[in-house]
Amino acid sequence: MIEQFKPDVRYRTNNIPVLSFKEIEQLAVDIISDYEPKYLKKPQSFDVDDFIEFYLGCEIEIVHLSHNHCYFGRYIFNEAEDIPIYCPETKKVYALQTDPNTILLDAYLTETSEREHLRRFTLMHEGGHGVKHQRYYMGIDKQLTIFDMNDYEEPQASSTSNSILGNGKRRVLKTDEDWLEYQANSFASCMLMNREALKILLNKHSYSVKSTSLQRVYIIGEISKIFEVSYEAAKVRLDKFDEMELLSLSNDNVSLF
To answer: Residue 19 CA to chain centroid, in angstroms?
Structure first.
C-alpha cells in the first residue's frame, strides 16, 4: 500500500482520520504528484485500474455481492473468511475467502459501458479506504468496508448544507461509518477530478463562481466528459470547488468538512 508515499494524517482516538475537504483535496494532489504528475498538468481521464492495482497494490476481484445489486464494492483489510457472495446461476449464497488488500467489485458494474462511471468511482472510493482507513479497520477483527447505494448518495457534514447531489437528500455525519464513507467519497472525487487539472479546465472556459447558470451547466458537462465521471459527480465536484473558492475569497478560516 503506497510504498513510495506515506500520507501525513492526524487521527482521532477512534483511529478515524482528521481531514477537512481541503486537506483531502491536497492529499489527492500529493498522491497524484507521486504516482503520475501528468494528471495534474492536463485535464484527462484518470487510469483508476492502474492506480489501484500497481500503485496501491490492491487485487480487484469481480463478484456478485448481492442478488439485487444493492452493494457496489468492498475493501478487505484483514484475513477474511466466509464473505457472503451471491451466485446468480444457482441463486444461492456461497462463502468466499480472499487475501487482505483486496477490492471486491460487484459484477453489475462491469456488465455494460453505461455503468463505467460508477465502476470507476467505486474503485476509487474503495481505494480511499485503503489509503486513509487502514488504521481504523486493522484494529477490528475480520472487518471489511462495504460501499452501497446509500453511500453513493454522498453524505453531508452539516444538516444545514444543501444536497450536493442535487436530489434534495441530506445525511448528517453522526457515526464513525458516516465519516469514513464521506472521506472515501471525497477522496474519490478529488482523485478523479483533481484540483490542479480542474483549475486548468475552468480557466480555459473563463469559469468563476459568478458565471451564469447556463455556463455552469455547460462546464459540468465538460467535466463529466473529460474526466470520465458521471454528470452528478461532476456537479458535486464543481459545487465543492466553488465552496472552497468562496471560502478563500472571504478569508474565512473555518474548515469545510
So the answer is: 14
Is residue 207, in this structure, part of any structural domain at all?
no
Is there a contact between 77 and 33 (Cβ–Cβ < 8 Å)?
no
Our CA angle for 244, 224, 147, nearest 5°, is: 80
Written as one letter, the residue type at 68 is: N
Q: Please report whether residue 35 resides in a domain.
A: yes
Domain count, the chain: 1
Is 56 within the bounds of a domain? yes
Give, for all 257 residues of the chain, the pLDDT tens digit. 455 566 677 888 888 899 999 999 999 999 999 999 999 999 999 999 999 999 999 999 999 999 998 889 999 988 766 788 999 999 999 988 888 899 999 999 999 999 999 999 999 999 999 999 888 887 665 455 666 555 544 443 332 222 233 333 445 678 888 899 999 999 999 999 999 999 999 999 999 999 999 999 999 999 999 999 999 999 999 999 999 888 877 655 545 44
Residue 204 covered by a domain: no
User: Alpha-carbon distance 188 to 48, whole Å?
Assistant: 10
Would you say 121 and 230 are in contact if contact means Cβ atoms under 8 Å apart?
yes
Q: Could you give the residue ranges of the DSSP H alpha helices within the chain?
A: 21-35, 38-41, 48-50, 116-132, 134-137, 149-152, 176-192, 195-204, 213-227, 231-250
Q: Which triple of cell numbers denotes residue 124?
A: 476509487
* Residue range of the domain that includes 126: 21-194
Taken as a whole, the chain contains a residue count of: 257
